[in-house]
Design a protein that fits this description.
Length: 111
């Protein structure tokens, strides 16, 4: 929320903000990290003072990211520590992937 308040402070009246992030499909889903369960861009942008808030799902972006993580797991990492680290992250991300949605938000600073 602090970041959105700072954005509101610096965006000129009539200026637009565009934010993309992950949100939990269900804020009570304990499998999803707490930090994602706390994200509610529509409500948080409005609370920060923005108007004309629109939040839309981005299923195509989500599909591309899911494919990236899945493909990383299909590669033999061998001794490559960076790829092993990426694969560890992929396992974590994919374990909760059905519990998150990719969103794009736009909002306007009131004039």
């Amino acid at each position: 929320m602090d970041a959105l308040l700072e954005c509101r402070r610096v965006v000129l009246p009539g200026g637009r903000i565009v934010v993309t992030c992950w949100e939990a499909v269900d804020a009570t889903d304990d499998r999803v990290p707490q930090r994602l369960r706390q994200v509610d861009l529509a409500g948080q942008l409005a609370s920060a003072g923005f108007v004309d808030v629109e939040v839309t799902d981005q299923p195509a972006w989500r599909a591309v990211e899911q494919a990236l993580w899945q493909e990383s797991l299909a590669i033999d990492a061998g001794d490559d520590l960076a790829l092993r680290s990426m694969q560890d992250e992929a396992r974590g991300v994919l374990s909760v992937f059905d519990g998150v949605r990719r969103v794009l938000a736009t909002a306007t600073a009131p004039g």
